[in-house]
Design brief:
Elements (H helix, E strand, L loop, with lengths): L2 H10 L5 E3 L20 E3 L21 E3 L21 E3 L21 E2 L1 E5 L21 E9 L5 H6 L8 E8 L14 E5 L8 H5 L9 E5 L15 E3 L8 H6 L7 H12 L9 E6 L6 H12 L12 H4 L5 H14 L12 H6 L11 E6 L6 H5 L3 E5 L5 H12 L9 H12 L5 H8 L4 H11 L6 H6 L1 H10 L1
Parallel strand pairs: 1-2, 2-3, 3-4, 4-5, 6-7, 7-8, 8-9, 9-10, 10-11, 12-13, 12-14
Helix pairs in contact: 5-6, 11-12, 11-13, 12-14, 13-16
């Protein structure tokens, strides 16, 4: 799209609120853009010819979302960006030529999404650049944030401390390419942390011990940090990617990672179908299909927990079937989805086809590129339309084999006390009597710490139905009541 064409459009649509120019071949944004005084959303992503934005863009005082991802030649942001007082979302991922942030960015106190913050080294100091202190006042930041210092800083510790990251409690993913690890406090929402890429990086032992204070950190990646020779034991980490050089406590850290028996391979299979790393996949649905109680939601939640840190906004909707049975139930679920993703209320639309169509629509056209949707259902037919369009994949979830079932039961029922005489033998009979019936994990957990007599009660309760697993499904409520009372 040429500058002349864009100028004509601007002159015609004075009351435009949304302007999506993604991958439109724009090389220069006309200064007349400021005439769109009602504009709240502007996407200029993947316009590789854009070098600068006109200063007039800062007169768009109603602008809430500005997307500049993959503008490879963009060398700077508007100097007066602080005038965009209503800006809530600034995306500048993969702007490879961008080297610094403008002074005054910290005045955008409504900002919730900032994908990247870039700081030049001491060898290159452009005029009016903003230091990491600009992040101090941005207390509402959430989602993912990448901070990169492009060179050496003489006072790296003071610079990193000025960011005040420990107060950014809504961040779920953080990438730090810095000389000094800033204090992170107890960021309760942080799930993913990446550290690395500068060979001059040095971290003290106390810096690294602070990682243990992050209660929900589930993924840690460290790369190209040759001076890092030690990490503390991190009991709750689910995913650990470390450099190739040896680390003193590596064995301890890996040994404390817990995996749900039989689940890890299934989670990996679903992740492959989602194709997160494939930029050519726009929107992808993966349906987890299986019988009632087999663990579809458990697998879905495990995948969600592992991936949620990669996305700026996520929503996990449970018990949709039950909720939609109530009057206004589907509207409630739609409203929750919209609020989780956009953090605002929105209008809802109803369909006569299915609840899935109510939530995602037939063409997925309201989801941004890169979105991923997980659906769990006993009915694979609800995804037929999406599968036929190449938008969806189906993962068939099967029952685990008897050895894995027994291992899972022992893990939850006995913990580290698997050698107590009598218990493993009864447990084996319980699992065998249940056949391929689910809820092994639940029943095992409820029997933990109970007497051997209580275990025998459960065995006696299950035995009459061992030939008919569907009867056990119907009476699982009674089994769980016995477990609780035992």
């Amino acid at each position: 799209m040429g500058e002349k064409t864009l100028c004509e459009l601007i002159s015609i649509f004075k009351f435009l609120r949304t302007l999506n120019c993604y991958d439109s071949g724009i090389e220069k944004l006309p200064s007349s853009i400021c005439e769109l005084k009602h504009l709240t959303f502007l996407d200029l992503s993947k316009n590789e010819g854009i070098i600068r934005l006109p200063d007039s863009v800062t007169r768009l005082q109603n602008l809430q979302v500005l997307k500049l991802n993959m503008c490879c030649k963009l060398i700077e942001l508007p100097r007066d960006i602080r005038k965009l007082v209503n800006l809530r979302q600034l995306e500048i991922s993969n702007c490879n030529a961008l080297s610094h942030m403008p002074h005054g960015l910290g005045q955008l106190t409504l900002l919730r999404t900032l994908t990247d913050f870039l700081l030049p080294g001491d060898d290159y100091c452009p005029k009016n650049y903003g230091g990491l202190g600009e992040l101090n006042r941005l207390s509402h930041l959430r989602g993912c944030l990448n901070i990169e210092v492009k060179g050496e800083k003489e006072d790296a510790v003071a610079e990193s401390n000025a960011a005040n990251l420990k107060e950014k409690d809504s961040l779920v993913s953080l990438v730090l390419v810095m000389q000094s690890l800033p204090p992170l406090g107890e960021l309760t929402s942080l799930k993913r942390l990446e550290i690395g890429e500068l060979p001059i990086v040095e971290y003290t032992e106390s810096d690294l011990h602070a990682l243990s204070s992050l209660p929900n950190l589930s993924a840690l990646r460290i790369w190209e940090c040759p001076k890092m020779e030690w990490i503390p034991p991190l009991l709750h980490i689910k995913e650990l990617k470390l450099p190739s050089f040896p680390l003193e406590s590596l064995q301890t850290s890996v040994a404390t990672i817990e995996h749900v028996i039989g689940m890890d391979d299934q989670v990996k299979d679903v992740l492959k179908l989602l194709e997160i790393d494939d930029d050519e996949v726009g929107v992808r649905i993966v349906g987890i299909h299986g019988t009632n109680g087999i663990g579809k939601t458990t697998i879905g939640k495990a995948v969600y927990d592992r991936l949620s840190s990669y996305f700026n906004s996520c929503s996990f909707l449970t018990e949709i079937g039950e909720t939609t049975q109530n009057v206004g139930g589907i509207q409630f679920v739609q409203t929750k989805l919209i609020y989780d993703i956009l953090e605002r209320d929105g209008d809802v639309l109803l369909s006569k086809e299915s609840h899935l169509d109510d939530l995602v629509r037939d063409l997925l056209n309201w989801f941004g590129s890169g979105s991923r949707i997980l659906v769990t259902s006993e009915n694979s037919g609800i995804l037929h339309t999406y599968v036929s369009q190449g938008l969806a994949r189906i993962y068939e979830l099967n029952y685990m084999d008897s050895n894995r079932a027994l291992e899972l039961f022992h893990k939850h029922a006995l913990g580290s006390h698997g050698l107590i005489p009598g218990y493993p033998e009864i447990g084996k009979r319980i699992v065998k009597a249940m056949g391929r019936v689910p809820f092994i994990e639940v029943i095992g957990s409820l029997l933990r710490g109970k007497t051997i007599e209580d275990w025998k009660k459960i065995e006696d309760l299950i035995k009459p139905w061992k030939e008919n697993s569907q009867e056990i499904l119907k009476d699982c409520g009674e089994i769980l009541k016995i477990c609780y009372k035992a």
